[in-house]
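Methods — Computational structure assignment.
A single polypeptide chain was analysed. Its primary sequence is given first, followed by the predicted tertiary structure written as structure tokens.
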Amino acid sequence: MGVAANISQPDAATRLRAAQEERARQRRRTRLLLLAPALGIIGIFGLFPLSIALVYSFLEPGTYGGVEWVFSYDAYVQFLFERDIFDDTLTFNSAYLQIFGRSFGLAITTMIGTLILGFPVAYFIAARPPEQRNFWLFAITLPFWTNLLIRTYSMLLIVRDEGFVNLMLMKIGLISEPLEMLYTDGAVLAGLVYSYLPFMILPIYASLEKFDFSLLEAGHDLFATRTQVFRHIIIPITRPGIVAGCVLVLIPALGAYITPELLGGGKKLMIGNLIALQFGSGRNWPFGAAAALILMAVVLIALLVSLRAGASKEGGHG
């Protein structure tokens, strides 16, 4: 009996281990099956177009558009250098760097502007009674049910020389002649802030929605100032929403096309306009693909650096 018991115990343990491994394999197969549709969509509509852009960026441009299937890295060289048509020498050209710099400057300023405007709005909505919040969210999102092109045209009518802003300023006597606002960086910035403001408000509101406002009273009872309450209670609670809102605003603002095209009048190019120009009248598809890939690489590097910095900061606090 003792020998049989000693033999059966390893067998039972082996069968149990085999059953656990089979169950783990089934869970992995189930996860893969559930992920398959999402992975297929990412592959077809994300990775496949990116792979085409990557291949095109290393080819030569066709005479009338398209590409010539000849390997070349001139598209990346063109980003920083200009080739002389006579002796083929390269000279540094900062024109495209200036466009990238303007785009990043406007996108970062848009992010800051939407944060400054969006945070108080999100806080106001979260502080309302639950039965009123849906109304305010509806009021915030209602204008954005219309097409972006229509909303940008509306913004154009507001900031033009005969627009609402100039007419009101002239009517109250602050100015005697219209201010030149249209086709400036200021007009583009105003259009970008208006376009992407809900992308900042909604994530911050989601962070504040379940916020216990009694914590503010507790902070004041402990003689904390308004600034201290804001820094040590509100900001830590809303940090995930702020980070999400900044990412949701910054990335699409970098690639904006319609807003700088209409409000900038084609004189204030951003990266989106530059890329569209290369695939359109410029007929330089490789450079357009290279510019898009450079933008994506810069954004990914910036996001990775910020995420690593945030993780190390949290680890340091821990």
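Note: The first strand starts at residue 59 and ends at 61.
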